[in-house]
Amino acid sequence: MDLFSSNKTDNNKIKVTDAVRDRIPDGLFLACPYCGTQIYNKQLGDFRVCPNCDYGFRLQARERVALFATDFVEFDADLTIDQTDFPGYQEKLDRAKKQTEMNESVLTGSGRIDGQAVDLGIMDSYFMMGSLGSKTGEKITRLFEHATSHRLPVVLFTASGGARMQEGIQSLMQMAKVSAAVAAHQEAGLLYLVVLTDPTTGGVTASFAMQGDITLAEPHALVGFAGARVIESTIHEKLPKDFQRVETLLKNGFVDKIVPRQQLTSVIGQLVALHQGEVADV
Ligand SMILES: [Zn+2]
User: Fold this and answer.
1) Can you tell me which residues bind Zn(2+) (predicted)?
2) Residue 233 has what pLDDT?
């Protein structure tokens, strides 16, 4: 037996054997979905951000409320779809409700961000991929209507896989319904601020995610309409790196500013204060 044989792989990284892997408890180390860096779970901190590239790991809506808002009062918590004919839909809904402690893929309510009164919507990618069901659309519509009648700005964190196919046309109609409520809010001269988070795609991108007066985004969030693989197989071309990442959208004018998660509270607070006519300490 060669006592001095190398236990290293070709690229000079120490080989992780199955025996070593078995000693690492699940969830202790995570790979950043954007840059691939292996991160010790505790390094992510409360904001769940990659220390190497600032990518914000996906959060549940209630985690975001705890991070960004105070005095939160939830709206329409019990609103849920009562008829689910599509095979397997009810089971998926039940699982999502249990996991997220929500009855739909968006959490809405009023509260304060950095001391500023806002109406707040947060989509949750853990609830059926944040898909746009009819009650998701109804909750966001009611949020805008409440904000219009109370003359409040709306801050909406988007995260969605797109329309909810189990609800067919009912889901697609939400794009128009929410857009009408956004327009009424805008006509009243009120601020609508969008924060694009990873991932925001499909019908949500094709409607209210792109209708904000100001569009912020978290670093490296994926934002697009159709999936990259679908586009590649349609046009028979390889897409460039970072296609559909917010850094590309920023260059092309779809995003106003990319803000690391740790700074979002103060940036949103300053933008709202500025719009309310208050002088912010910049
Ligand atoms: Zn990273």
Assistant:
1) 32, 35, 50, 53
2) 92
